[in-house]
Amino acid sequence: TEYAEFLHCKGRKFTDFDEVRQEIEVETDRITGVNKGISSIPINLRIYSPHVLSLTLIDLPGITKVPVGDQPADIEQQIRDMIMQFISRENCLILAVTPANTDLANSDALKLAKEVDPQGLRTIGVITKLDLMDEGTDAREILENKLLPLRRGYIGVVNRSQKDIDGKKDIKAALLAERKFFLSHPAYRHMADRMGTPYLQKVLNQQLTNHIRDTLPAFRSKLQSQLLSIEHEVEVYKNFRPEDPTRKTKALLQMVQQFSVDFEKRIEGSGDQVDTLELSGGAKINRIFHERFPFELVKMEFNEKELRREISYAIKNIHGIRQVLPSLFTPDMAFEAIVKKQIVKLKGPCLKSVDLVMQELINTVKKCTKKLATYPRLCEETERIVAGYIREREEKTKDQVLLLIDIQVSYINTNHEDFIGFANAQQRSSQVNKSAVGNQVIRKGWLTINNIGIMKGGSKEYWFVLTAESLSWYKDDEEKEKKYMLPLDNLKVRDVEKSFMSSKHIFGLFNTEQRNVYKDYRFLELACDSQEEVDSWKASLLRAGVYPDKSSTENDENGQADNFSMDPQLERQVETIRNLVDSYMSIINKCIRDLIPKTIMHLMINNVKEFINAELLAHLYSSEDQNTLMEESAEQAQRRDEMLRMYQALKEALAIIGDISTSTVSTPAPPPVDDSWLQQARRSPPPSPSTQRRPTLNNPPTRPLSGRGPAPAIPSPGPQSGAPPVPFRPGPLPPFPSGGEALGGPPQVPSRPTRAPPSVPR
């Protein structure tokens, strides 16, 4: 069925082409007015017909030299700009239309085409009005491309005359008349097969084919990359059978198995599909065990001032009213009281580590359930069941951790092989041995020195290197230009409150002997991008023997500790017990640091993995009806359908490209010709063109475009072109042929000499 559609009349189909003609006239007058105005806004007309090519015809006006009617003073420049806007496009074929009864050397169409297509690869010359040439003259040498040659040559056409249009001459009959003219004319009969509207259509169709074949390799590569990108996802949907009664059961088993594998990989680590953007659950738990937990233990352990005060109180309270005699002094009771109190303090860090691991397990479960998003209810239920089980195991793990602490409190084993004993306690140095040996490098990384004044350059980022003996920083990570080296002796770490103006997380270093740490700074503030980095640096400093400071919170005490008598005899007893406590607590810490991660691993992590592998499926079956559990989300169903459609469309497109490659042939571009005459030709003012109208876009619906519109205009390229001509002239427009008439050659420039010659070809 032949019909037409306008872009400005969406949804309306025109089957009567007289109405199409009328609509073009009405729309033109609506935009440009009725007094020969112009507009660069095109009228978009799409014609559906078996008799047209899949090309877009852009019908442009000829150049007006003198404005008439409502036309602006710069009408020539406006039309020129409008034409250049279209013909500058690389995928546009230019049909440079020139009447045979005018001077070709002064053709505006050819001159404009030469500007944008200097190689002549996109320009085809079209000669009209061959039947109106003076008797005894012809355009043979031009059509043979001997006189004023073009690279793609010229094609002659004979269009309907104004009388034919007024008489509603059939386009099919016009094509036959054109054919008869070329066959009967003595100057053209030898090249009749290369003249006429049907041959012009054939040439344009071949250019479309060439364009398609030229773009096929890149287009094929793009389609293949798209196909590969969705192939993995489509693989899941390929075997989707909505009518299969076992589909939901199979899907449930697959989802639970996939969840179990993902959870184990995130905890245990895996060589495939490694996340390079963030730490996985297992890696974060490892940091809790070996960085965060030891750091929390040390923070609880070293509070020297408070410990000494407690020891002195314990010694005095044990003896009560009696005088403490050096020869009768036995440190057992005071030692046990202090040690038990220190051991009980370890409950906090141990329970905190259980909480951190529990939270990390739940976060891991949430990440693993994202793959179950296809089935929202299954995702929710799986997360609820596993998170609930993790919290159950958390309670049991905490009970076991507290039991381990109570076991340590219940019996103080002073016969332990690593315990220094009373005799050695008096001789032991109070200095704490560093955990690192020699000048070993413990950590490297970027840190910002935060408390440098603005006058001295402000905060700066440096490359820091921490060893067992010093903290050095360099200009960059090449470690060539050292800025400073800070010895670790008498250094401690202190937390610094984050500024509301800064996104950085800060910690500080200071000297316990009130000395400057760096230049004239008593306190060195170091900043990181995250709290995790701060904790990691603190743990590294701890390994180097730089411990957290807690004494700063005790400056406001009421002097209790300084008021009691600390005679030399009591001082020696306090020092002895302090060394004993230090020795025993190092044994306890070593034991706790080993046992707590093992307890958490056994009672929480391994237990949760076994639960997911063995019991999760049974809990899911008992929690809810399987059909409800395995209901797809509407979004997922839509996505599946879209992915399958896309996959099928890509495969079909690649198959079509393969067919085109094998069933079509490209024609090589003609060799260059000497077209210097275009530059040398003297410009002479052509006759004034007819009334200017809006350009009309005539778009058949099928393929992407190859050739496009023109210098002054492009004739319709269809074989027996679909739409009859829509003249730009004022006055009543002749009607389109009836639906029963065959649609023929392109609309044309009116062929009477009384009309303005360089009219707008249709």
TrEMBL record:
The Dynamin-type G domain covers which part of the protein? 1-217
Q: Give the enzyme class.
A: hydrolase
Pfam families reported in the protein's UniProt record: Dynamin_M, Dynamin_N, GED, PH
Give residue ranges for domain PH. 440-546
Q: Which domain of life is it from?
A: Eukaryota
Catalytic activity, EC:
3.6.5.5
Compositional bias annotation for Low complexity: 674-683, 690-700
Share an example GO biological-process annotation for this protein.
Answer: phagocytosis
* Domain GED: residue ranges: 574-665
Q: Where is the composition biased (Pro residues)?
A: 712-737, 747-762
Q: Which GO terms describe its cellular component?
A: centriole; clathrin-coated pit; clathrin-coated vesicle; microtubule; midbody; neuron projection; phagocytic cup; phagocytic vesicle membrane
Keywords from the named record: Acetylation, Cell junction, Cell projection, Coated pit, Cytoplasm, Cytoplasmic vesicle, Cytoskeleton, Endocytosis, Endosome, GTP-binding, Hydrolase, Membrane, Microtubule, Motor protein, Nucleotide-binding, Phagocytosis, Phosphoprotein, Synapse, Synaptosome
Reactions catalysed: GTP + H2O = GDP + phosphate + H(+)
The membrane topology of this protein is: Peripheral membrane protein
The yes or no answer to whether the keyword Cell cycle is present is: no
UniProt subcellular location: Cell projection, Phagocytic cup; Cell projection, Podosome; Cell projection, Uropodium; Cytoplasm, Cytoskeleton, Microtubule organizing center, Centrosome, Centriole
Region of interest (Disordered), ranges? 548-568, 662-762
A GO molecular function annotation here is:
microtubule binding
Q: What is this protein called?
A: Dynamin-2
Originating species: Pygoscelis adeliae (Adelie penguin)
